[in-house]
Amino acid sequence: MTATLTTPKRIRIVGQEAAAIATAVARFPSSTQWQEVQLFGDCGYGCKLYARKIGAVTQYELMHSCSYGCPLGHDWATSSVPVSVCPKATA
I want to staple 72 with a disulfide (CB 3.0 to 4.6 A). Which of 17, 47, 48, 64 is the partner? Predict the structure, then answer.
């Protein structure tokens, strides 16, 4: 079977998992550099969730890596996916 790669849609993480991520990222210093938050288990290849804080704004992104064998990491259009982290939303 051949996988069809498409531009990924934004991922939304809610509830307790989002609260744990937000708590961990709150300790990050303000920086334009992405910092690893955790493995993203839903991918299955060892791809990782990253975050960066620029002033009061926190940005999250899932970065697929071809070095882990992830087919989405081979194409720049699918290698990074914006992520919304909503600790107060219900799952």
Answer: 64
List pLDDT tens digits, range 7-34. 567 888 888 999 999 999 988 889 899 9
Q: Cβ of 27: how many Cβ atoms within 10 Å?
A: 7
66 — pLDDT class (breaks 50, 70, 90): confident
Every domain of the chain and the residues it spans: 11-86
Amino acid 37: pLDDT: 93
Residue with token string 């991918």: 43
CB distance 59 to 67 below 8 Å: no
Q: Identify residue 45 by its one-letter amino acid code.
A: Y
Q: How many CB atoms lie within 10 A of CB 56?
A: 6
Rounded to the nearest 10 degrees, how much is the dihedral formed by the CA atoms of 73, 75, 76, 77?
-110
